[in-house]
## 1
Amino acid sequence: MEKKLIRRIKNKMNIEEIREILKDIKWSTWVVPFELIKPYIILLLCVLFVFPLIIGLRFSLLGYAMNYFWFDYMFFMWYKAKVVKQIEWERRQKRKEFRDD
């Protein structure tokens, strides 16, 4: 579903329209893209285990759950921003190539 949305987005001209379409991608139904599984897992382990160990924190079960959801939401927001930047960069490249001809 996300790839279809991204293809539709590339045909749009305005950044506000891109953000409006990206609102269709909801956090509650979002799945980590295949190419980002490895960074997702590494960051998740760091957030849940390594960073708390370094600074001396110990989480309860509720603490782990809250940190997992916080991490997942932040990763989702990063992914949406990355998609917008990638689309904008591709548009600028197309405009640049068009001007060069």
## 2
Amino acid sequence: MNRSLEGRVGRLEQSSGVDDPDQFYLMWCGPDEEEVQAMQAAVDQGLVALDKNGFFPLWPEGGAFCCRWQGSESMPAPRWTTIEKMTDDELTYMLDSVKALQARR
């Protein structure tokens, strides 16, 4: 990537509030809650927004995901993260949630 393009991409990432383009906002719901309902509650509270088509929840300038927490320990707080920064348990629960959501569709 040439220096001019690198600079422009860097400025775009900084101005969007997301320094790492791989980041997403991760929130958890309890094992007896539905991810879609928890995400809708976040939308209703103004924590996340829907895209222009009314689908995929967006954190300001980035993606947001809600996954079902299955651990015996308390749920982690919602936060910006990347796949690389997630714990093994978080990754397992996130993948389980994605698989279950796809199976319901």
## 3
Amino acid sequence: MVKLERAGPILIWFIPAVWQVQTKNSSLFFQNLWDGCDRIIQFSIASEDPTQIWATMTAHLAKGDISGAISCFSAASADDYHQTFLAGGSSKVISTINAIGPMTPVLINNSLAEYYFTSIVAGQTITFSVHFDKENGNWIILSF
């Protein structure tokens, strides 16, 4: 749980760099815009959570269901990811997907979202971006 602290008599709150509150139908993201003072915040409300399609995709891949996972991708990138997953082999894809940690929001609006996750590759911590887009009114994975 994140504790908000009021900064004196005016309505300014100290918050961490990025903080997310989720309800059944929306997510509220706060982003610190003034790094030196932690007093100015920006928030946006997403009516739908783009990470649900990520969870669906990773659940399919964890079961070895590449075709099911591909349905979560943009029409523009689905074929490339299909070929990549087939070339990687089922066991390699499953172990890679299972090693992905939690995602952190970077940007989210009504039709575009970017998150990131970190993973250890050959002993080095690498940060990967995940881009989501709306296609026919539904969130899809554009790239990661």
